[in-house]
Amino acid sequence: MRVADVMTPDVYTTTPETPIRTFARRLGEHGIAGMPVLGDDGSVIGVISEADVLAKARRQPEDAGRTALARLLHPRPTQVPLKRDARVVGEAMTAPAVTIESYCSLATAAARMLEHGVNRLPVIRRGKLVGILSRADVVRAFARSDDQVVAEAREQVELQQALNGESELVEVDVIDGEAVLTGSVRRRGDAEALSRLVRLVPGVVDVRSEVSWAEKED
Q: Across-strand partners of 37?
């Protein structure tokens, strides 16, 4: 299953020039938690979320009581523009945006979300935004029924065996998320590759391979 299969294609977006207050109102109107930020050419240049608005609303304790003159004469050693000073989206957004290509697997998308600590990924195709993928979308895919999971697993195995030139198909069954592979292939490496392939199918929690191979290793 690919990102394109489960993403939301209709995406609310914003621009760097949009005032923060306008952006905040749109979040409330649409009941969403964030938006991709698009440049003039339609590319995704950043992401802004409700957390960025909260950062602006939060008062920074280390600056409490300091006058504007004091901050000017004695800036913090590593002072950078703070999101709380932002007036427009471009000053508050997180950039560069963490994105995912529409052809990528859900396993790749899940790993990217965990690696970067994000809840959603703008989905791109040839550099342009085509959808949004949330953690909830990924979870729903992994919560599919065994019948749905086994159908995809069998399709993946059949395609791989066709590419390998195998005449006899390896059988796949899925019970409570455990995939069981039975049959025979030519090489041990092919059997191991099929196990890895099935393990990537959303909804598969474990793989038990009973596949044998004809060619003996030296």
A: 14, 46
Sign of the torsion angle spanned by Cα atoms 93, 4, 28, 13 = positive
Residue type, 116: H
Looking at 1.10.3720.10, 3.10.580.10, 3.40.50.300, 3.40.50.150, the CATH number of the domain 3-142 comes to 3.10.580.10
Query: What is the DSSP code string of 113-153?
Result: HHHHT-SEEEEEETTEEEEEEEHHHHHHHHT--HHHHHHHH
**Class of domain 146-213 (CATH, top level):** alpha beta
Query: Do the strands 100-101 and 120-125 form a parallel or antiparallel pair, or are they unpaired?
Result: parallel
Question: Cα separation of 86 and 82, whole Å?
Answer: 7
Cα separation, 90 vs 98, in Å, equals: 16
| pLDDT tens per residue across span 164-173 | 888 788 999 9
Q: Residue holding tokens 């709380």?
A: 84
**Can you give the pTM of this predicted structure?**
0.70
Interatomic CA distance for residues 87 and 15, integer angstroms: 13
